[in-house]
Specification:
The chain contains 16 helices and 7 strands. It has 3 domains: 3-167, Rossmann fold; 171-216, no CATH class; 223-340, Zinc Finger, Delta Prime, domain 3. Helix content is 57%, strand content 9%.
Length: 341
Amino acid sequence: MKKYFPRVFGNVQISDRIGTAIESGRMPHAFLILGPDGSGKHTLAKEIAAAVNCGRLGNSLPCGVCSACKRIYDGNFTDVKLLERPKDKATVGVNAIKDFREDMFLSATESDHKIYIIADAECMTVEAQNALLKVLEEPPSGVIIILLSTEGDKILTTIKSRAQTVSMERFDQSELSRLASEISSDARELKHSSPEKFAAAIMGADGRLGEAIRLMDKRFSEGLEEERSVIARIVRALRRGTPRAELISATNALPQKRAELLSELELLTSAIRDMVAARRDGGVHLIFFSSREECLALAEAIGTKRLLDCADAVLEANGHLTKNANVTNVIASLTARLNSN
């Protein structure tokens, strides 16, 4: 039996459906791949691009060893193009999409198909999405457009109706632990040297294999520990009776770069979610906290109403950041709201 997309773990039905469509020549001209960061969206997109251009026949599609497959995996194939949100921007603008769209009408260089991957598709402005819609309505022959998004509700309905939607699956903790240990030497080492940190990373990954491996990467783990310590300090400062100056000092440690701040706020959201959920259900799966006792103690000391108000404040801060608001002003506003609750 043929194996489709061997680099994609799990998601068997998705892989079989798309792989069969490629082999039968009934390939859709557009995909919308949905899933949180680390869920395998980029891997699936590359596997689709490689399968469409694979130069060998065998028991696996793509084969992964022919010249086309290797160059696509390396990001060095002329007819596979990637558009990402600039690191210093909160959105993907209309001009970037127009440039991408114009390239779609040029002839392919070395393939019968041209693959266009748009990461962070939820960050496209409405104008950018409408510019993309024009080419989705009448795509050039041989062009395949793959949108990757963490938030499908931010994609225009008119775009969704013209693309095949794919939702990446999550793994349960036991399967995630097994796969991470098989794939990553860092994960295997961490599981042996520090079972507690390994378990915390598995919980924090929330069913996402790519995220689990990232959390256990030695090059990343040191920075993650620092990020988590900043959030832990903020959470402790939210306890009733804590001097306001302590919370101000804690939020002053938040990063001044937009992308880094968004990452920290995601951790703060996870911490708040854990505390709210734990108060309602003592057996709930935790994402941020490795200690259920600490989570429950902090939740009790802060109170559910304040936690929910803080969650609203973080959501508002995220909204301002995605609209390119000044980072310093966002932190100041967030601090004021957290202190007022």
